[in-house]
Amino acid sequence: MEEKKRCLKKSLFSLFAAMAFIFLSGAAAQQKEPEVPFVPTPDKVVLEMLKMAQVSKDDVVYDLGCGDGRIVITAASKFGCRGVGIDIDPERIRESRQNAIEAGESDKVQFIQRDLFEADISEATVVTLYLLSEVNLRLRPKLFKELNPGTRVVSHEFNMGNWEPDASSSVKTGDYRDEPRVDFWDEYTLDYWNSPTVYFWVIPGNVTGTWKLTIPDISGKNEFTLKFDQEFQRVKGEAFEGTYSIRIFIKDEKIKGNMLQFTMERKLEGHTENLHFEGRVQGHIMQGVLKMEDSPGKAEIKWNAKRAASTFRPIISSDSSGIE
Ligand SMILES: C[S@@+](CC[C@H](N)C(=O)[O-])C[C@H]1O[C@@H](n2cnc3c(N)ncnc32)[C@H](O)[C@@H]1O
Fold it and tell me: For residue 46, which atom of ligand 1 is closest to its CA?
C-alpha cells in the first residue's frame, strides 16, 4: 500500500513537473518563473483545509500561490475572515480579483502579485498551500522565521518532509473530471486524486535551552533547572532541583503554539508525586500554572521560568529523509 502510494506520489510529481515544463516554455517573459503550475484545489478540499485550520472571522488567511483566489475567497465568504492571496502570475491575480468581485468579497480579500518566497507573510494566522513537497521544504525556514507560534498551516496533498503533521485527513472528492483543466489526467492519477490528503501543522513556540523555574508559593524547594531539547513540535525535557543537585524525571511534554505542557515526577518519602505544568512561552520568559496530583482540591499554583538566552537554539532541522 505504502509502495503504491509512493508510486502515485511520484506520478503526481511527474505530472506537475511536466505541466510546469509546458507552462514555463510559455512564461519566459515573466521575471521569475512559477515553481508550480496552476491546478485549482477542488471546492470540497478547500472547505476541508479551512475547517481543519479552524478558520474563524478573526483570522487572516494567506494562500501562497493563490491561483484563481478560491481559497481566500471561500475563507472570506464562508468564515467571515480576511484573506490575502499571493501569486507570481499576473493572469492569476487578475482572475482572483475578478472572482472576488463576482463573489462580493473584494473588501475582505487582497491579491498581490509577488514571489511567495519574497512576500511578507508575518500577519497571517493561517497559511494555505498547494505547491509541491520540494517547494514546501524550501518554504519551511520562512514559515518558522516569519509566522507567530500558533499560526496554522494547511497543505493540500504535499507534506513537509521530517516536520510531521499535527493532523491529516483524506478527502473524498468524487470525480476530478468535474474540475476545470484536468480532463487529460490518466485513470491511475485520477484514482489517487479522488481522495487527496490535507496536512495540518501548528507553528510551535521554541522552548529550547536552560530555564530557571521558580514556584514562589510552594513550601520547601521551589527553584528548579529545566532543560528542553526540541525539533519542530517534538519536545524532550529534564529537570533538576536547584542547580543540578537532584535529577527529576519529566514526561508528557507537548507544545501547541505558545502553550507548553509537561509533567514533573517528584520523588517524595516513599511515593512519586506528579506535578502537571502548563504555561505560555514568550521570548525567554514562561509563565503558567501547576496542578499537583496529590492536592486535587488545591487552587492552581503559579510558576514562572526564565531562559538563559545563550542556550536558545533553532528547532528546525534539515531534511535528509527524502520527500514523499
Ligand atoms: C497548484 S496551484 C494552487 C492554486 C491555489 N492555491 C489552489 O489551491 O487552488 C499553484 C499556484 O502557485 C503559483 N506559484 C508558483 N510558484 C510561485 C511563486 N514562486 N510565487 C508565487 N506564486 C507561485 C502558480 O502560479 C499557481 O497559481
Answer: 8
Residue ranges per structural domain of the chain: 2-202, 209-311
Query: pLDDT tens string for the chain (324 positions)?
Result: 444 444 445 444 454 544 544 444 444 444 788 999 999 999 999 999 999 999 999 999 999 999 999 999 999 999 999 999 999 999 999 999 999 999 999 999 999 999 999 999 999 999 999 999 999 999 999 999 999 999 999 999 999 999 999 999 998 876 555 555 455 556 656 666 678 899 999 999 999 999 999 998 877 778 999 999 999 999 999 999 876 678 899 999 999 999 999 999 987 777 888 999 999 999 999 999 999 877 666 678 999 999 999 999 999 988 765 555
CATH architecture for segment(s) 2-202: 3-Layer(aba) Sandwich (3.40)
Helix 70-79 and helix 90-103, axial crossing angle in degrees, nearest 10: 20
Q: Give the residues surrounding ligand 1 with Cβ less than 6 Å away.
A: 34-36, 38-41, 63, 65-67, 70-71, 86-89, 92, 115-117, 130, 156
Specify the ligand 1 atom closest to the Cα of 65: 12
Atom of ligand 1 lying closest to residue 92 CA: 27
Ligand 1 atom index nearest CA of 69: 5
Which residue, among 126, 129, 147, 154, has the nearest Cα to 56 in the 3D structure?
Answer: 126
pTM of the predicted structure, to 2 decimals: 0.86
The Å distance, Cα 132 to ligand 1 centre, comes to 10
Alpha carbon of 195 to those of 13, 68, 173, 297: distances in Å? 16, 22, 6, 49
Q: Which CATH number fits domain 209-311: 2.170.140, 2.60.120, 2.40.128, 2.60.40?
A: 2.40.128
Cα distances from 22 to residues 18, 38, 138, 186, in angstroms, run 6, 12, 23, 17
Nearest CA residue ID for atom 1, ligand 1: 39
